[in-house]
């Protein structure tokens, strides 16, 4: 089993990652004040991982999540955390009030760096869905307004075990797992 340091201050995210990846990762977590960058999701994920790797000097993974509204050409995207803190779940819904298209997609990007001198490797998971009025517990980000395609419930309404089998985070971690299995014993 590979040991990595997951850089996050979000305890709910840490719990979810441990639940999904415990069969292939031994996760140590560190809360590190990472810079809030602007740009494309892949560029943000890569830069955050490089920063964390340089600061800590150990193998690290970082994670960046985006919620992208198709009617808004992908916004709020990687800035969803800030949108959510400023306008809330209802405000996120209101962003789409003038549009018929309520479809969206959730993207999770894990970046892995075995050392400060390494270029981070990205693992991207994407789940299609729809933005709906808030439903279910509101204790984990925008989960109450994201209804994954093919489901009648939002992420917040799904059992954690069910969400952890279909989510954007799960899909990205499965790619990370495949990478580690493919390169077992090497860095």
From TrEMBL:
- Where in the cell does this protein reside? Cytoplasm
Q: What is this protein called?
A: Inosine triphosphate pyrophosphatase
**InterPro entries registered for this protein in UniProt:** ITPase, ITPase-like_fam, RdgB/HAM1
According to the UniProt record, one GO cellular component term is:
cytoplasm
What main location does UniProt list? cytoplasm
Q: Which cofactor does it need?
A: Mg(2+); Mn(2+)
- Which BP terms in the Gene Ontology apply to this protein? deoxyribonucleoside triphosphate catabolic process; nucleotide metabolic process
Function statement? Pyrophosphatase that hydrolyzes non-canonical purine nucleotides such as inosine triphosphate (ITP), deoxyinosine triphosphate (dITP) or xanthosine 5'-triphosphate (XTP) to their respective monophosphate derivatives. The enzyme does not distinguish between the deoxy- and ribose forms. Probably excludes non-canonical purines from RNA and DNA precursor pools, thus preventing their incorporation into RNA and DNA and avoiding chromosomal lesions.
Q: What is the species of this protein?
A: Zophobas morio
Protein's UniProt keywords contain Oxidoreductase = no
> Which keywords does the record carry?
Cytoplasm, Hydrolase, Magnesium, Manganese, Metal-binding, Nucleotide metabolism, Nucleotide-binding
Which family would the database say this protein is a member of?
Belongs to the HAM1 NTPase family.
């Amino acid at each position: 089993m590979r040991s990595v340091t997951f850089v996050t201050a979000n305890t709910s995210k840490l719990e979810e990652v441990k639940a999904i990846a415990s069969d292939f990762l031994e996760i140590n977590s560190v809360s590190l004040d990472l810079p809030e960058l602007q740009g494309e999701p892949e560029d943000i994920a890569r830069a955050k991982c490089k920063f964390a790797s340089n600061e800590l000097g150990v193998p690290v993974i970082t994670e960046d999540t985006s919620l992208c509204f198709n009617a808004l050409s992908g916004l709020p995207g990687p800035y969803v955390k800030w949108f959510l803190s400023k306008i809330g779940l209802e405000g996120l819904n209101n962003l789409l009030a003038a549009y018929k298209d309520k479809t969206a997609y959730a993207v999770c990007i894990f970046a892995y760096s075995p050392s400060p001198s390494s270029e981070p490797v990205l693992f991207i998971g994407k789940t299609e869905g729809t933005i709906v009025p808030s439903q279910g517990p509101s204790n984990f980000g925008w989960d109450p307004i994201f209804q994954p395609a093919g489901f009648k419930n939002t992420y917040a309404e799904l059992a954690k075990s069910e969400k952890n089998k279909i989510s954007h985070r799960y899909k990205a971690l499965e790619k990370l797992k495949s990478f580690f299995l493919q390169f077992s014993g090497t860095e």
